[in-house]
Write a structure and sequence with these properties.
Elements (H helix, E strand, L loop, with lengths): L1 E6 L7 E8 L9 H8 L3 H7 L10 E5 L6 E8 L8 H17 L4 E5 L8 H15 L19 E6 L2 H29 L7 H15 L2 E6 H7 L2 H7 L7 E7 L7 E6 L1 E5 L19 H15 L5 E11 L11 E3 L5 E3 L7 H12 L6 E6 L3 H7 L4 E5 L2 H14 L3 E3 L17 E2 L7 H10 L7 E5 L5 E2 L9 E2 L4 H9 L3
Parallel strand pairs: 1-6, 2-4, 2-5, 5-6, 9-11, 9-14, 10-11, 13-17, 14-18, 15-16
Antiparallel strand pairs: 3-4, 7-8, 8-11, 12-13, 15-18, 19-20
Helix pairs in contact: 3-4, 4-5, 5-9, 6-9, 7-8, 8-10, 9-14, 10-13, 12-14
Bound molecules: ligand BES and zinc ion (2 copies).
């Protein structure tokens, strides 16, 4: 889909379809919809008076103009009550409009953006593009039959009336596109099956990103990781035939900028290992690299946006499988930090590979560490598939995340990391166990990770709920969601 900005006005622009938004039961029409209404001899105000279109949130209705306008068709889309409007609803409405156009088989549409209350043209364009691109995302990589039936919009033209508006809209379009394309890349990686998205493939993807954007990259294989002392990562990786990779991507190295470390769990398939999971629903565990995908995507977006930060993205990538070489319950591992861990369950592998990655990240002396991981089933039970579990050791950093969350529309909810919870992890034979009780499972996972970040400001995002969804949301189709990418990119954009 091509999206571009042009100078022009909605009522005068010839096109396949003109998209217009309206609030619910407005007293008067304002902006582009008003100009179109005048040109159309009051057609829109009449149909709204008759109750044919009310403007309820995500309501959509298609009209044929029969030559009364340069546009062949008009799609009205509802924004809901004016007092309840925000950019999250705007992204949803943009997505719903895009999905309607796509599903109707219409190949082109035009849409004019005008400043709305406190929202600038630039913000509106960014969020419009975000909602649209994320909403019409489809994963059909492995479909070979009836590919001709896949519907796609070919062209979208965003109109601005003045050159100033055109400039702001172009800026918003550019930002929205960079971020959404990164999210879609993350979604492709998550939706990709584990026989295709292996640790090697993740490392190749990282190499490609490094090459395209002039980043530094280091990919350690398992024997190198072993020589470095990454005993926890290696323990998980050695059970699999598929070679594990420890990936480090670095953007803006050596420029004296603030360093932020991003760490993503990269389990390309989590069978549970020797503590094997029940087979029902196990296929979903191809998504256990969602944190890794989010880190790759955030790095790509940050560099395309030229963000003035030194970013280090770290991805321990491996499968978690049972085999004659697999690690076992009862094993004691020596982590890179020197601390030892008694393995209670080989299914609590995420915290093991992350522990070494977190320790490794300290070498870069980061101002902050953000980890993203599909870490626990317990967070899904606690918060459902809508919200990211948020943990951390630093109030200002937690606040930054919460602020970014509000802007990006990726919800987070804070859980505590009180010392008392550490008691659950005390081991008789090692420094700690990798599993405590079932109760407070997500918190105990967070407590475990906290033992590897020393005093560095750190947040842990448990994305196990929203990483993969069974029921679509306004601009998030079913399947891999790419959650966390927009949250992290917003955090980085607002860093100073
Ligand atoms: N990858 C899973 C967590 C998960 C579960 C993600 C469901 C998405 C949906 C993780 O490695 C895991 O298996 N965690 C265990 C930890 C337990 C053994 C302490 C869990 O949550 O059951
Ligand atoms: Zn597991
Ligand atoms: Zn896992």
């Amino acid at each position: 889909m091509q999206i571009r900005v042009e100078k022009g006005a909605a009522e005068k622009f010839p096109c396949e379809l003109l998209l217009l938004f309206s609030f619910e039961s407005p007293e008067t029409l304002e902006g582009p919809i008003q100009s179109v209404d005048v040109e159309w001899k009051g057609f829109i105000s009449t149909l709204m008076k008759q109750g044919d279109f009310k403007g309820e949130l995500f309501e959509r209705k298609l009209f044929y103009t029969q030559g009364a306008l340069p546009a062949k068709r008009v799609l009205l889309t509802g924004l809901g009550k004016k007092g309840e409007f925000d950019l999250e609803k705007w992204r949803g409405a943009s997505s719903k409009a895009g999905q309607f156009v796509r599903d109707a088989g219409i190949k082109q549409f035009v849409f004019q953006v005008k400043k709305l209350d406190s929202y600038s043209e630039e913000d509106l364009a960014e969020s419009f593009v975000t909602g649209l691109l994320l909403g019409v995302y489809q994963y059909h990589e492995f479909k070979t039959l009836e590919r001709e039936k896949i519907k796609e919009i070919g062209e979208v033209i965003i109109l601005g009336e003045t050159m100033d508006e055109v400039k702001s809209l172009s800026d918003g379009l550019r930002t929205g596109k960079i971020i959404s394309e990164a999210v879609c890349m993350a979604r492709d990686l998550v939706n990709g099956p584990s026989n295709k998205i292996t640790p090697t493939v993740l490392s190749e993807k990282a190499q490609q990103i490094a090459k395209d954007h002039g980043m530094e990259i280091q990919v350690l294989d398992v024997s190198q990781a072993e020589a470095m002392g990454m005993g926890a990562f290696v323990a998980v990786a050695k059970g699999s035939q598929e070679p594990g990779k420890f990936i480090t991507l670095e953007y803006n190295k050596g420029k004296g900028l603030d360093t932020i470390a991003l760490v993503g769990k990269g389990i390309t398939f989590d069978s549970g290992g020797i503590s094997i999971k029940p087979s029902e629903g196990m296929g979903r565990m191809k998504d256990d690299m969602s944190g890794a995908a989010a880190v790759l995507a955030a790095m790509q977006a940050a560099s395309k946006l030229s963000l003035p930060l030194h970013l280090v993205g770290m991805i321990p990538a491996t499968e978690n499988l049972p085999s004659g070489k697999a690690y076992k319950p009862g094993d004691i591992l020596k982590t890179l930090s020197g601390q030892t861990v008694e393995v209670i369950s080989t299914d609590a592998e995420g915290r093991l590979i992350l522990s070494d990655a977190l320790t490794y990240s300290l070498r870069y002396q980061p101002k902050a560490i953000v980890d993203l991981a599909t870490l626990t089933g317990a967070i899904v039970i606690a918060l459902g598939d809508y919200v990211i579990g948020l943990f951390g050791n630093d109030e200002p950093l937690l606040k930054r995340i919460e602020e970014a969350s509000g802007k990006a529309g990726e919800k987070v909810w804070r859980l505590p990391l009180w010392d008392e919870y550490f008691d659950y992890l005390k081991s008789d034979v090692a420094d700690f166990m990798n599993v405590g009780t079932r109760a407070a499972g997500a918190i105990i996972g967070g407590i475990f990770l906290s033992k590897f970040v020393e005093k560095v400001p750190w947040v842990h995002l448990d994305i196990a709920g929203p990483a993969f969804i069974e029921k679509e949301r306004p601009y998030v189709p079913k399947g891999g969601t790419g959650v966390g990418v927009r949250l992290v990119v917003q955090l980085l954009r607002d860093w100073k």
